[in-house]
Amino acid sequence: MPHDRFLSALAADLDTLDARGNPKRHERVIVEVLPPGGGRGPRYRLAGRGDRPFLKMNSNNYLGMNLRAEVVAAEEAATRRFGAGPGAVRFISGTYATHVELESRLAEFHGREAAMIFSAAYAAMVGVFTPLVTAETAIVSDELNHNCIINAIRLARPQEKRVYRHNDVADLDAKLAEVARTGCRRALVVTDGIFSMRGDRAPLAEIQAAARRHDGAFPENVVVIVDDSHGVGAYGATGRGTEEATGSSPADVLIGTLGKAFGVNGGYVVGHRTLIDFLRESAPTYIYSNPITPGEAAAARAALDLLDSPEGRGLLAHLREMTARFRDGLVRLGFETLEGEHAVVPLFVRDTPRTTALVAHLEAHGVLATGLNYPVVPKGDETIRFQVSADHTASDIDAVLDVLARFEDPRRESR
Questions:
Q1: What is the CATH code of the structural domain delimited by 69-307?
Q2: Is the N or C terminus of the chain more exposed, i.e. has fewer CB atoms within 10 Å?
């Protein structure tokens, strides 16, 4: 059946998206990973770029776990034992020993009663959120929450929704007071732990205090949900994330990922056993989707065990050292960034053409970084998001800073 008008409409939409200056479909393809050596971390070769090696400064692989020999070996051994894929959803015949072992270990790591893994962190947020929202639920959400939270709220269709100013607990308090007057039986307060675009953290203890202040107004409580996908494994003295770093109480519902600091794939939720039992019966992206492979579950378990060891604490200490070295170097060069300890280090450019030029300059000198322009970020907040890894060496960090120091601002040239 002809669908030329449909395709024309899509082509027009693509033109509009391209005009914004942040197309995503032109993906770099990694064709080879070069192991670390000579005081340098791993490098990557890209399709169409010859033999040139590139340094990644835009990876979520905060601890370099995906290249660790023990993690790779665990995945290979489980794959030989169980096969390449699960072959079914969990409740039919897709649950393997490695899935159950990983869930038990995640619950223990976070000090919770139970855990449940999903095919991805995005699927975890959507799968957790939608069954927890009833026709009498209010949601109060931070304005800079991740896209997965925004879309989960849209799909859940709560009775009431409020968005509070970023990390503004007074505004959160006011929004909770508003929804308390609407007759909702349940309120969900949702926030990222670490905000992915800026690397800043939520004031979890203060958020929990606000939730407690209003809890009595809701027959089914005020429930605090934290997505700490960028925090867990990369933040806190032992990698337990924003809860550990802020000294907060455990969140009522904590969502994390296996695809960032753990270097594998998948998402998860931890909490009270009743919560997890309910979600196994009701979370659509869990019930109707295949889980991560048995091999991936074994690899994630190996990464978690490594993190939760003296060697893992050494990786975290090195990550903090490299992050501080890079952040201090940006300040020394006169670039604008945010204070903090997380490995997401934003460089605020505040101009789309200059952001594009700076990203191109970095790539031309063998450094991969991510430019964030409107509408991904608000106008005036155009940013380059750098992500430091425990894979990086001091030589790597200094090399990136040297490339940045040699950038010639196109706006200055035009004056």
A1: 3.40.640.10
A2: N
